[in-house]
Amino acid sequence: NFKRTDNNGRHKIGRVGTRTVFVGNHPVSRTEAHVAQRFCDNRIVSSKYTLWNFLPKNLFEQFRRIANFYFLIIFLVQVTVDTPTSPVTSGLPLFFVITVTAIKQGYEDWLRHRADNEVNKSTVYIIENAKRVRKESEKIKVGDVVEVQADETFPCDLILLSSCTTDGTCYVTTASLDGESNCKTHYAVRDTIALCTAESIDNLQAAIECEQPQPDLYKFVGRMSIYSNSIEAVARSLGPENLLLKGAKLKNTKKIYGVAVYTGMETKMALNYQGKSQKRSAVEKSINAFLIVYLIILLTKAAVCTTLKYVWQSSPHNDEPWYNQKTQKERETLKVLKMFTDFLSFMVLFNFIIPVSMYVTVEMQKFLGSFFISWDKDFFDEEINEGALVNTSDLNEELGQVDYVFTDKTGTLTENTMEFIECCIDGHRYKDTTQEVDGLSQTDGPLPCFDKADKNREELFLRALCLCHTVEIKTNDAVDGTTESAELTYISSSPDEIALVKGAKKFGFTFLGNWNGRIRVENQRKEIEEYELLHTLNFDSVRRRMSVIVKTEGGDILLFCKGADSAVFPRVQNHEIELIKAHVEHNAMDGYRTLCVAFKEITPDDFERINAQLVEAKMALQDREEKLETIFDDIETNMNLIGATAVEDKLQDQAAETIEALHAAGLKVWVLTGDKMETARSTCYACRLFQTNTELLELTTKTIEDSERKEDRLHELLIEYRKKLMHELPRSTRSLKKAWTEHQEYGLIIDGSTLSLILNSSQDSSSNNYKSIFLQICMKCTAVLCCRMAPLQKAQIVRMVKNLKGSPITLSIGDGANDVSMILESHVGIGIKGKEGRQAARNSDYSVPKFKHLKKLLLAHGHLYYVRIAHLVQYFFYKNLCFILPQFLYQFFCGFSQQPLYDAAYLTMYNICFTSLPILAYSLLEQHININTLISDPRLYMKISGNAMLQLGPFLYWTFLAAFEGTVFFFGTYFLFQTASLEDNGKTYGSWTFGTIVFTVLVFTVTLKLALDTRFWTWINHFVIWGSLAFYVFFSFFWGGIIWPFLKQQRMYFVFAQMLSSVSTWLAIILLIFISLFPEIILIVIKNVKRRSARRNLSGRRASDSLSSRPSVRPLLLRTFSDESNIL
Hints:
By secondary structure, the protein is an alpha+beta fold. The chain has 4 domains: 18-38 and 124-271, Calcium-transporting ATPase, cytoplasmic transduction domain A; 275-385 and 858-1128, Calcium-transporting ATPase, transmembrane domain (Up-down Bundle), CATH 1.20.1110; 389-412 and 656-848, HAD superfamily/HAD-like (Rossmann fold, 3-Layer(aba) Sandwich), CATH 3.40.50; 424-648, Calcium-transporting ATPase, cytoplasmic domain N (3-Layer(aba) Sandwich), CATH 3.40.1110.10. Helix content is 43%, strand content 17%. α10 (358-369) runs parallel beside α29 (916-925).
């Protein structure tokens, strides 16, 4: 028991950083006066907007985007300044973009409102005045006692008071919170277990003091003070095992009672609504760079035209014509102001060079394209009955730009399906066989010990396996002193623990379960042994061990500990280590996961001291974990080593082939694991991260054992390895990949302790920077293995590589909670839907069932996503430069009078209707290379690496192509129609007809250019390409065929129909389109010749290519789209 009183003997309630909750909202009379705390109600509000703030708030958020704000400024300039084009030309496209986005966001928010109402209006039962009262969920207050029935969802965060079971436990699933579908056991404190009626609950006088709301689902610190007839309150510690989270569901338990501690937006589920930090792809950064370039082009054009206008007008012969003479007001206007307004007018005239609709198209492309990953049946795993999941669509193209892959080992490269193989007791090796003698059979081996260990030591070791764990048991039949008719099902978050318990069962010791803190074990003689569980010293990734303190039926108090060898060996008596250490190393070389088992006896006096310390630490609300860790560290010393276990974790299917393909694609793969070096190294050989001819360079504790001069020895090794690599391998990165196949391959192994030395090394000028030299070594190695890594060290490694020169794109993949930090740190995070929970999948950008799916995700999906969106970005800038360049050239022929070349309707509709759908369809469906080819030939991935399609070279190509075609549009039309009389009545065309011809050639050319680029035709491509051209023709006839009453001037009336009535116009349009596309046609012919040659070479390689994978059973895209392609 624990109590805290002031000088007057009164119980202290409330402190900084905590909250006090009175059970049933009945203040306890014996507590000191405290300030009443106000808590939020239980309403969940996941929506962003209300009916009243939607319009201003949404507009504010949209105009925070630079492009939208830019077009708003252009629109305001058109409204306030006498500009050559109508405000409609920029206002309507902007209105369209803003409206579409607002409708999308408004609909999504309406769905959130609807979902919130379903939750808030659901029915719950509250215990008030010893009666069950029916209420709406949103009316629950902190302190209310809530009754929850089986298969119901908890309406808020509750502290479990009691359940229908005699031991006060209940089973909960948290699939909606963290994706874990297995049942978890939660416990009530022993003082409230018996309160199973409304009357007894209402009579309870208790106060709960706990931490303020925080989002971590797996952490909770609190204590409950229970007041009875005695003067002193009984205090019990509360942890995450006592907390029932909102959103979780009650399973296999008839009903429970719980007191609300966090409600509404303060529940852990609500606090987890906030998203992860936004990641930006390399393509998005390229778009911003291109926007700046085109903005400079726009400003340059406006400045040139403004300057030339006044130069042209400076000649007396080129002044304003008589019908455009300046008014008296204009003459009085300052010339500088007039030049500024002219500059703004030219900016308005040329502003369409910035593609307003590109952002909407890119967002739609990313959103719709992400479904192809979810729909891909190759990612479906029958074992878990799930496929791939896209948590963010903003990074689709980044999958095609990965340079480094950081992968966990256990559960990612391996199955995380553990099987007990063998064990070592006092240096004697034992293995599971079908024929057993006394439960154990000894096997031959390289170890020098051949005699069996002492019988008592064998039983002690097996008891340790049955007692030191967190395994729970499910029984189909009641266990009443015997297990003969019962089928035991073991449940645990750790597959290792289940394997060890099952291993002990095979050797004759059976774990029967834990009831009310009493563990029952059946020994080899079929006798039931009972132990009282006094304390559990939980496992964590820093300590790398766990312990239990138990009391035997004879009254002896024992501590059993199991953990990694590096965590246990320093805490046992040294003379016992060597024999078992040799066994551990032997098993690790075979690729087995090893754990060491130790114990010690605790005297009653020592236990009294330990118990007091643990109880006090568990009652602490501040720094509870740090205090417990210090106590654990003190308890787990001077232990006796009993033995070690070896558990096999088999390699995942196709893991080796996947890593081999990633290497062939030019990616560097690093394995970051918490396992010991020997186990991890064996796994790396098995999955082909290391080849048989790979020379391994070690930077581990073993290689720098000299405790007095560790840093000096580390420095020597770093210099030695750098010289070795620099001598062997070429300096350039491009030739490095070639060198991997022609020269000696090197791999690096480093452990967590050495990494800490490197990262924390002194940075004085007299010595080399350890971190810099270490990175140089890593860059020259074909593969890197980092073992004994803590979770934060994994993130440090990723961050270190991310910050390298050139900012390489990093990808992290893992399956456990210890991988979350590196998943969040990397550019792209991928979670495996594994057996260690779903924390990694929840925090990832993408989640897949198996590691093998990474191959297709990167080599096929990533490749195609990048090519599609890169082409989309380049095409948008290209077609807008084609659009505006004739407008710019026209100013040289109209005295820089800001006369528009195109009609306002065409200016408005060009980006919205005439050219938007073909590129959207292309960016969703294009397969420039067959999917099976992309998978079977990983080298194709290298061709797009380094953001290759959005570099300066391709950008200049598209820009010069647009400049060429825009020049052909204008001057071709100008020279062809300069003197000719083209109409039947002998008249020549006017300026609007001239502009319409240019615009017609423009629309057909940019659309047919996309048709030429399309290599994978579907009915959708045909529909949008030819449909867009047909719509343009229809619209032109319609727009020019009616006298529109809202227009002041009917300048386009009958222009299009009259233009097409001339055969010369038809011939001119066709000729100009052909001239514009002729360079593209020549390039396509040359590429096809090269492609046929490459196809012949590829077919020869495939005959002997070991990377060749079986063809996909279905296409990547939709069922109606064939995987067949007309190339490669």
